[in-house]
């Protein structure tokens, strides 16, 4: 069983600040770092560190070769990573004194994915393999449709939310893993229980996992609603916490775990990630999670 992450790689420009800057305000940052990130890259590293054979497909410019190197250092196959003339994706990330973040994205090379690239990549995968995708590249809808047609197990982290996500056939996914902001946009605003119910009704066929930040996560196991508390740790930087959760959760589920155990393991991995700075660099190994 192979896992393919077809997704984004970003250069994260991270500014540590007292607070998230307000409209019209100019604020000096306390520190600056240039890190490897992108929801695709982070989730691929999480899957690989959890123990999955992981492949990556996506696009960078020459400025992003260090992102490809990082994937390879984590044992991830990069045969389907393409380097072109468009600069790499970039994220401006503000992290406040409580570890909360605000992110502005420039898609760059991530927005150069094409249907031809999708066909070429998916020809190496088939039934039994996992596709994990997000919403930071072009042709996301086509990728989801093609992966279903190829018989892959498909997990979608519909993040960030954009208007065209409403047109994606999300009900054909095996897994939808999303947070409350995404749940409110795609399902219904309300309590987490109401949100989960609305998403399950709208996207019947997909199993929904709702992440709730410091309030943990929830998902259904048959008729039973499983609630997982978050693991309390000193928070340094919440960037990539959701990505870490997603990778460790899917690795557990693809290896026969039940939902409760998978949510528990994912919560522990995410807790380690928020206790460290950075995105890809904050993701723990399976030994640390053990
Ligand atoms: O989920 C965190 C990621 O979102 C960051 O690494 C940033 O690049 C954005 O894609």
Descriptive overview:
The chain has nine helices and 13 strands. The mean pLDDT is 96. It has a nine-stranded mixed beta sheet, sandwiched between helices. The protein has helices at 39-50, 65-73, 115-122, 140-149, 180-186, 192-202, 241-254, 259-274, 286-289, and strands spanning 3-6, 10-16, 31-37, 54-61, 77-84, 89-95, 101-106, 130-133, 153-156, 175-179, 207-211, 217-221, 224-228. Strand 6 (89-95) and strand 7 form a beta hairpin. The chain starts with a strand and ends with a helix. With 290 residues, it is an alpha/beta fold. Helix 1 packs across helix 7 and helix 7 runs antiparallel to helix 8 (259-274). The protein binds alpha-D-ribofuranose. Alpha-D-ribofuranose (RIB) binds at residues 8, 10, 12, 37-39, 42, 91, 103, 136, 239-240, 242-243, 279.
Summarize the structure.
With 290 residues, this protein is an alpha/beta fold.
Topology record:
Elements: E1 3-6, E2 10-16, E3 31-37, H1 39-50, E4 54-61, H2 65-73, E5 77-84, E6 89-95, E7 101-106, H3 115-122, E8 130-133, H4 140-149, E9 153-156, E10 175-179, H5 180-186, H6 192-202, E11 207-211, E12 217-221, E13 224-228, H7 241-254, H8 259-274, H9 286-289
Helix pairs in contact: 1-7, 3-4, 5-6, 7-8
Bound molecules: alpha-D-ribofuranose (RIB).
Alpha-D-ribofuranose binds at residues 8, 10, 12, 37-39, 42, 91, 103, 136, 239-240, 242-243, 279.
